[in-house]
UniProtKB/TrEMBL annotation:
TM helices/strands, residue ranges: 15-32, 44-63, 93-113, 133-154, 206-227, 247-263, 269-290, 297-319
Cross-referenced Pfam families: 7TM_GPCR_Str
Organism listed in the record: Caenorhabditis brenneri (Nematode worm)
Name of the molecule in the record: Serpentine receptor class r-10
Recorded GO MF terms: G protein-coupled olfactory receptor activity; G-protein alpha-subunit binding
Main location: membrane
Membrane topology of this protein: Multi-pass membrane protein
GO cellular component, one term: dendrite
Cellular compartments annotated: Cell projection, Cilium membrane
Keyword field: Cell membrane, Cell projection, Chemotaxis, Cilium, Glycoprotein, Membrane, Olfaction, Receptor, Sensory transduction, Transmembrane, Transmembrane helix
Subunit details: Interacts with odr-4.
Annotated coiled-coil segments of the chain: none
Gene name for this UniProt entry: Cbn-odr-10
Physiological role: An odorant receptor which affects chemotaxis to the volatile odorant diacetyl. Specifies AWA neuronal cell fate via the odr-7 pathway.
């Protein structure tokens, strides 16, 4: 598809995703407050991720990112809602990258908690106060690495200025250069038939790959160990087992939905976690092989706009207490409306007869 169609889809996903994110996460926070007693300290981790999802959706809506891959270069372009300096635009783009990385890292922490709860319950003390406060500090290290690389290792040059101008002119002609900020991941370029490799840029991509790989290894190991333990041990109560399985399935589905592969089979619980990284992997690998996705790279943005709203929706639907609370609320509202209509109808009939 061309740039205009993708921008239309992305902007629509922005509106739908932001509304969904705000509504669903507020509902989840209310459920955690009223129905989350059996979740222990895990409810605080869920609440943090819920608040972060709202914050992430706000940042995305403000920056309105565009992703484009062309000529061995990945462009992250932000459309300005108001005028600000080039340096501030660069900082904003790097901050968006930090939020993007946070979603990976926090997902890994979710799997660590479920692993501790199922396999190493004595280690759950690391999720109790005051140890709980150390987790945001630990998560900030890879997130800061990701953001710092995006800001410092990909400077604006004459080449990137000309390249982003060409991208806007050829694919997004209605967007003016002065109304955007960008980060250009240039892997290499050709001059007079000679290829010049950008070592600094490749080093930055290596840091991104390292962060992604480490979080994936943590999720894979913890996920497999949790799944294996739940199938082997039978001594825990049915209620506890059901809750553990609900939370684990929710984690798997949360990871799966990030690229639209959803499965509920326990034999496939680990497979979807691999594909969570597929869009981001394509984002960084395609330029290396000089694969021009052009405006089609915006499918990553499209998914990222919808993900913060779909992610908590899975928790609400999978966890039985949350699901039943919602269903009871909907039934009460429906019964209330039906009673109101019945009363109004009876009053109308009585007035007619009189």
């Amino acid at each position: 598809m061309n740039g205009e169609m993708w921008i239309t889809l992305v902007d629509t996903a922005d509106i739908v995703g932001f509304s969904l994110t705000l509504c669903v996460n507020i509902v989840l926070l209310c459920l955690l407050r009223t129905r989350g007693k059996n979740l222990g300290t895990y409810k605080y981790l869920m609440a943090f991720f819920s608040v972060f999802s709202i914050f992430y959706a706000i940042i995305e809506s403000i920056l309105r990112p565009i992703m484009h891959i062309e000529n061995a270069t990945f462009f992250l372009i932000s459309r300005k809602r108001f005028n600000y300096s080039t340096r501030l635009g660069k900082i904003n783009s790097a901050f968006y990258c930090a939020c993007f990385a946070t979603s990976f890292v926090v997902s890994g922490v979710h799997f660590v908690y479920r692993y501790f709860a199922s396999c190493k319950p004595d280690l759950l003390r690391f999720f109790n106060m005051p140890n709980l406060l150390l987790w945001p500090l630990g998560c900030s290290i890879p997130v800061t690495m990701w953001a710092s690389v995006s800001y410092f290792l990909y400077p604006d040059t004459d080449y990137t200025e000309a390249a982003v101008s060409d991208v806007l002119r050829n694919h997004y002609s209605w967007i003016k250069k002065e109304n955007v900020s960008y980060i250009a991941y240039v892997y290499y370029q050709y001059e007079n038939g000679v290829r010049y490799v950008y070592i600094k840029n490749l080093l930055g991509c290596f840091v991104h790959y390292f962060v992604m790989s480490m979080t994936f290894v943590v999720m894979f190991y913890c996920g497999f160990s949790t799944w294996k333990t739940m199938r082997i041990h039978k001594e825990i109560s049915d209620r506890t087992r059901q809750l553990q399985k609900q939370l684990f399935k929710a984690l798997v589905l949360q990871v799966s939905v990030s690229f639209w592969l959803i499965t509920s089979s326990e034999l496939q619980t680990l497979i979807p976690s691999i594909f969570m990284y597929a869009p981001t992997g394509v984002m960084f690998i395609a330029p290396f092989f000089n694969i021009d996705l052009n405006a089609n790279a915006n499918f990553i943005v499209f998914c990222s706009f919808l993900y913060p709203g779909l992610d908590p929706l899975i928790l609400i639907l999978i966890i039985r207490d949350f699901r039943q609370t919602i269903f009871r609320f909907v039934r009460r509202k429906k019964n209330s409306v039906d009673e109101s209509r019945s009363t109004t109808r009876n009053m109308s009939v009585a007035a007619t007869n009189s």
